[in-house]
Amino acid sequence: MPLLLDYFDPSLNRALDFRTSQTVAHCRRFLAEFLWHASIFLRLYTKLLGIKWELRGVEEIERVQACVVVVNHQSILDILGLFNIWTTLGNLAAVSKKALLWVIPFGPIAWLAGTVFIDRKNGKESMKTLVNVANKSQSHATKLLIFPEGTRNKDILSNGIQPFKKGAFKIAIDNRLPILPLVFSPYYFIDEKTYFFGHGKVIIKALEPISTEDLVSDDVDQLMANTHAIMQKEFQSLTKEIVSTLDDNYSSNVRWRQEILKNNKS
Which pTM value belongs to this model? Predict the structure, then answer.
C-alpha cells in the first residue's frame, strides 16, 4: 500500500496509485483540505457521542517537528481523539494495525489522513515499513505516531499501561528522533463487559520530549523503560484527577470498576 507521506516528496511528480494523476502540490492541498473537513466531521461526531476532549501540553508538541510520538492505547476511540487534535500535532503519520483499515468510518478516514497500516503478523515487513516512514519523517519534518503497547489495553484501570514493544524506540534511536509521550486519561465511561457507553471527558496530555541524541542501540531497553514509567505516572495522575470529579453513583453500570474508582478518589 502506498504511503501518503510519499506525496510530500518533491522529487515525485508521477502517479503513485489508482487515485492519483495529480501533482505533489495538488496532493498537499487535498490533504490539508481533507484534514480540515475530517476534523469538523469528527468533532461533531464526538459531540453526538458525548465525549469531551481536552488537550494539554501544546507547548511540548510545538517544541519538536520530526519525532516519534508514543501513545497509550485503550480503544478505537483513540483515533477519534487524535483527529480532534490532528491539526495541532502538525504533519503526522500514524501507525496502526491493518485490521483497523476496514473499520468504518475510522479506517478509511485515517488512511486518507496519512495513517500507515502494518501487518503485525509479519514482523519483518512491518519493521521495514516503519524504517521507511521514519526516514520520510526526518526529511519532511513529520511526526511518526506509534502505539507502543501493540494492542488495545481494555483493562488499563486494573493493570496500568501494558509493557511496550521495542520498535518505536529502536527507530527513534536509529534516526536520532526525540520521543514525544502522549497520554490519554482512562475511558471510565465505557465498559464492554456490561455494554455501557456513557458520556465523559478525556484528557490528552503531551509530556516533555525525550532526546535520543546521545543514545545507541544498547540503550533501547532503558529508553523504553523510562518512557513507560513516565507515561504510567502521568496516567495515574490523570486518572485521579478525572475520577475525583465524578458523582459517586456515576459508575453504577460499570460495577467491576467501582472499587478502582473509589480507590483513586482516596
Answer: 0.75
